[in-house]
Amino acid sequence: MTTLILGGTTEASRLASALAEAGLPAVLSYAGRTESPRAQPVPVRIGGFGGVGGLAAYLRHAGIRRVVDATHPFAAQISRNAVAACALAGVPLIALERPAWEARAGDRWTHVPDIAAAVAALHGPAETVFLAIGRQHLAEFAGLPHRFLLRLVDPPQALPLADAVVEVARGPFDVAGDRALMQRHGVGRIVAKNAGGAGAEAKLIAARDLGLPVILIDRPALPERRVVATVAEVMGWLHADLGV
Ligand code: NAP
Questions:
Q1: 34 CA to middle of ligand 1, Å?
Q2: Predicted confidence (pLDDT) per residue in 150-197, tens digit
Q3: Which fold does the domain 109-217 belong to in CATH?
Q4: Is 179 helix (H, G, I), strand (E, B) or coil?
Q5: Is the pTM of the predicted complex or chain greater than 0.85?
Q6: For a Cys-Cys bond, which of 71, 120, 182, 187 suits 75, CB 3.0-4.6 Å?
Q7: Which of 135, 77, 93, 119 is nearest to 217 (CA)?
Q8: Does residue 244 register a pLDDT over 70?
Q9: What is the full DSSP assignment across 57-86?
Q10: Where in the chain is the domain with CATH 3.40.50.720?
Q11: Ligand 1 pocket by C-beta < 6 Å: which residues?
């Protein structure tokens, strides 16, 4: 009856707690990107499965009966793999996904489809850019003349950017803190992924308060799958499906 949670997000951690409290067996899976992931109330496994075939084999061997894809909306590869592997192994899948952010009055957002378009949108005179996209894809911004403010979970070993300041911090973040951070560094523009959710939204509210433009990267397209937005909906699906 074990449920596999594909994690790496606050929602996945919340779901792990909900399953533990309900006494439902679960395993939480991390890709292994951060050095010290949060402690969890359910068993944790770390590292890639080895593509679709590897994940399908894991589901069979570990006796997984349900999969919840609670990965970040930009973790597209694992989400695609989960759809294919669950179909292969005959295991029901649900995605727990935060709704995307939508602009409000005062927001100065430019929507771009992907990282390459974000790079193109940054061509222009040098300024300080808050590049709030995590640590993957930084190299793609290397040719630009800007100073970059980065916020990373772990201190980086080496950076592909010539002029970068790093703030090591783990969310959730608050608006006052993000406003102060941007003012302290003289940020002129923000680049962010449209991740949705509360913890990462502070920078967008701070940008609105400060009247700063934001380049917002759209979510990658994913195959058709069942999607819900809350832990409660996942629990409802599990209870109905498992008949408990
Ligand atoms: P990705 O590009 O979709 O996945 C790349 C590969 O990493 C997958 O094919 C899989 O390897 C492995 N992987 C990813 N998530 C995994 C998981 N939860 N458990 C086991 N293996 C996993 O993923 P990503 O964008 O690098 O993100 C990696 C992790 O960071 C995810 O857990 C995600 O929730 C979290 N995260 C991502 C972002 C973001 O902006 N992308 C932001 C915050 C947190 P195999 O093919 O070998 O199975």
A1: 11
A2: 999 989 889 999 999 999 998 889 999 999 999 999 999 999 999 998
A3: Rossmann fold (3.40.50)
A4: helix
A5: yes
A6: 71
A7: 119
A8: no
A9: HHHHHTTEEEEEE---TT-HHHHHHHHHHH
A10: 2-99+221-242, 109-217
A11: 6-9, 29-31, 33, 48-51, 54-55, 71-72, 74-78, 81, 134, 193
